[in-house]
Amino acid sequence: MRIPPRAVALVDDDPLLLRALERVLLACGYRVQSFTSAEQYLREVNAGEISCVVIDINLGVGRLSGLDLGDIISQSLHATPIVFMTGSDELALCERARDIGCFEFLKKPFPTSKLVATLVRLEGLSSITAS
Q: What is the pTM of this model?
């Protein structure tokens, strides 16, 4: 079964940012599932339907950080591409995100067009590898 090419999961503990990103992605034709914690994502997501996960590194809610969630996703049966976002300037966070194998690392605040361009680029790569 082929994963729908335009299904995105958003994981961020800021409900205003979540809603803003969700609106932009819905307007661009993406199907979006939003989660306010790593734990909620793990409980509720149908990973087989997601083509990319956009995760805030510094999740303030719950026990797991965004990097912890990224580790879990990258090692799972459905190793979904990950885009990390953060407001932090810590080089160690960026390096760990790269070690996990993230597709892109977005520094907050970023223009929503940058997220959309990242998802379009990811889709282009997956259509090349699928053919």
A: 0.88
